[in-house]
Design goal:
By secondary structure, the chain is mainly α. The chain is built from 4 helices and no strands.
Length: 97
Amino acid sequence: MGVLPRAVVRAAGLALALAAIGCGPPLPEPESAGARVMVARCGGCHRAYAPQTMTVGMWDVQLEKMRRLFAQRGIAWLAPDEERTLREYIARWAGTS
């Protein structure tokens, strides 16, 4: 058996790293309205990050970033009731540090 080429080793390492990144805490109350909005509207483009992974302040920054990104890409932002539901869900479950 020979030594694996560096490219193969790098690709395997990258695959493992991406798999680890994809794993995270589950969404609390997955059947709640807030979790459903998060899965439908956030999880449509990337995985739905659990609210406890960031503080409310950090979520506020991320949501404003996403609002700008949606506008740049011509994607409709959340309806007012969706945004309110999502923000309430995040506030209830957000991390503290």
